[in-house]
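Is this the right way to post C-alpha cells for a design question? Let me know if I should format differently. Anyway, here goes:
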C-alpha cells in the first residue's frame, strides 16, 4: 500500500477519473459535448444568466457562446428570454428538469459524493476541505512561477 502524499494523490486521481468517466457517460447518453454540459449545469445554477456571463465563465469567444446557446435552444434544453429591463439583452434559462432522468445523470456523481460526505464527521469534512484547499493553493501558486 502506498503511504503519505502518494496515497492521497492516487486516491484523488482515482476520484477525478471516476468523475470524468461518469460525466462522459452522461454526456454521451444525452448527446452533449463537454462545453454544452458545463454550460447547462452553470445555467441551471444561475437561471436567467446573461450570455456574456456564461461566456466569461466558460472562457470562450462571443461567437462560440452564441453557437453553444443556439445548439441548446434548438434542442429545447434552454430558452432565451428578453431582459425586461434592457431589451437588448437576453437571459438564458434551462427548460428541462435536471433532477429528473435522463438529465439527472449530469449531476448524479456529485450528488452521490455529497451523500457520502454527509455520512462523515464534520471535523473530518473540515480536515478534508483544508487539505484540498492547501493542495489547490500550492499547485496553483507553483504553476504561476
Amino acid at each position: 500500500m502506498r503511504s503519505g502524499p502518494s496515497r492521497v494523490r492516487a486516491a484523488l486521481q482515482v476520484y477525478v477519473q471516476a468523475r470524468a468517466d461518469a460525466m462522459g457517460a452522461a454526456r454521451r447518453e444525452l448527446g452533449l459535448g463537454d462545453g454544452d454540459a458545463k454550460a447547462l449545469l452553470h445555467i441551471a445554477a444561475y437561471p436567467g444568466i446573461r450570455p456574456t456571463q456564461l461566456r466569461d465563465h466558460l472562457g470562450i469567444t462571443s461567437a462560440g457562446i452564441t453557437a453553444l446557446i443556439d445548439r441548446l435552444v434548438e434542442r429545447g434544453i434552454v430558452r432565451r428570454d428578453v431582459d425586461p429591463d434592457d431589451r437588448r439583452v437576453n437571459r438564458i434559462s434551462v427548460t428541462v428538469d435536471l433532477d429528473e432522468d435522463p438529465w439527472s445523470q449530469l449531476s448524479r456523481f456529485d450528488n452521490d459524493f455529497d451523500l457520502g460526505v454527509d455520512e462523515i464527521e464534520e471535523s473530518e469534512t473540515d480536515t478534508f476541505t483544508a487539505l484540498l484547499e492547501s493542495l489547490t493553493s500550492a499547485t496553483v501558486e507553483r504553476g504561476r512561477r
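Format looks fine. Someone answered above. Worth noting: Residues 22 and 142 are 30 Å apart (CA to CA). The two ends are 33 Å apart (CA to CA).
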